[in-house]
Write a structure and sequence with these properties.
alpha/beta, Rossmann fold, 3 domains, five-stranded parallel sheet, 15 helices, 5 strands, globular
């Protein structure tokens, strides 16, 4: 498995492989970086390297044996995967306590028991404190792997007990080239590489799910229309978007994230920055919007959307949240 079959992150693979070869590695790791950058994949490859019964060489999993395939599918007997029920949800203390009990038992099949905590920034305070206790009392056969957006989003006491592996997005050109190798046409590859901001996992998901691009197009079209809508129209839209009887309610967070990326592009254009836009197919309308806004106004739109996402994750009334957000948008022709 050259570079553990990962796209980029060679330095991280070399570091982890070397630790296994020397037999000196940490009992806890934090894989940090933006979603879609490869955090979970690297963590699973590390688990394979630890638990593969037939490695080509120390730290080099075969990728083909039963254990490697089970780990890839996150169904290995000695692997526990813990995460909130949905992205933006809450990882609860009961989930951590269950894993602590599992870790206390001797491995069933492999040499180690591994617990993989995904998106641990979503853990509530009780869950975070329970993990801290688990880190302090973990037996020698236990390996804990965490993923999170950034170390700063976790308790410093948790971070201090983990070896931190910071993963960064790839160059957009690299992701674009790989997408073309996977069959995407040049225009689609360029768009997905920019939409993913160099995060290969996100780019591959978008390539595999054309409906995601349709959803994005619909939501950005609605954003543009709402800028010239009346207050009544905005209230009606907020009601439709957050109606709990509709499946759309579950995708509200995705909508806000799309709007956030759009307003960040407007801010870039308003500031005259040379950085590439995340929405290159909307470049003309983004620049036109930026021309009608001053820099403080563009920055405020970004900050308001970021705040709305935080409030949504904190279970603030969704309809009221969207109404306030839309009423604060500028009215443009």
């Amino acid at each position: 498995m050259t570079n553990w079959n990962l796209l980029d992150h060679e330095w991280a693979v070399e570091l982890l492989r070397g630790q296994i070869q020397r037999g000196v590695f940490s009992h806890a790791y934090l894989f940090a970086g933006p979603p879609g950058v490869g955090r979970r994949t690297l963590a699973l490859r590390f688990a394979q390297a630890l638990l593969c019964p037939n490695p080509a060489s120390p730290g080099e999993p075969c990728g083909a044996c039963r254990a490697c395939k089970q780990i890839e599918a996150m169904q290995y007997p000695d692997l526990a995967v813990v995460q909130a029920e949905k992205e933006g949800g809450v990882l609860k203390v009961e989930q951590v306590r269950e894993v602590r009990q599992m870790l206390s038992l001797k491995p069933y099949q492999g040499v180690y028991r591994v617990a993989l905590f995904l998106r641990f920034e979503e853990a509530n305070a009780s869950a975070a404190n329970a993990l801290l206790k688990t880190l302090e009392e973990a037996p020698q056969h236990a390996i804990l792997l965490l993923t999170a957006d950034s170390p700063e989003s976790l308790l410093p006491t948790i971070v201090s007990r983990c070896q931190v592996i910071r993963l960064r997005p790839l160059p957009v050109e690299t992701v674009e080239a790989v997408l073309r190798e996977r069959g995407a046409d040049a225009e689609t590859a360029r768009l997905l590489a920019h939409l993913s901001s160099g995060r290969p996992g996100l780019a591959f998901r978008l390539l595999a799910d054309p409906s995601a691009l349709d959803f994005r197009r619909q939501r950005l079209d609605e954003l543009r229309r709402l800028l010239s809508a009346s207050r009544v129209e905005k209230f009606a839209y907020a009601e439709r978007l957050t109606d709990r009887k509709r499946a759309e309610q579950e995708r509200l967070r995705e909508t806000l994230l799309l709007w956030l990326a759009y307003w960040r592009d407007v801010l870039l254009a308003a500031s005259g920055a040379s950085a590439p836009l995340a929405n290159p197919d909307r470049a003309d309308e983004i620049r036109a919007l930026a021309a009608g806004l001053d820099l403080p106004s563009a920055r405020r739109l970004v900050e308001q959307t970021e705040k709305a996402i935080q409030q949504l994750d904190a279970n603030v009334n969704a309809r009221l949240l969207v109404e306030v957000l839309l009423l604060d948008w500028p009215r443009l022709p």
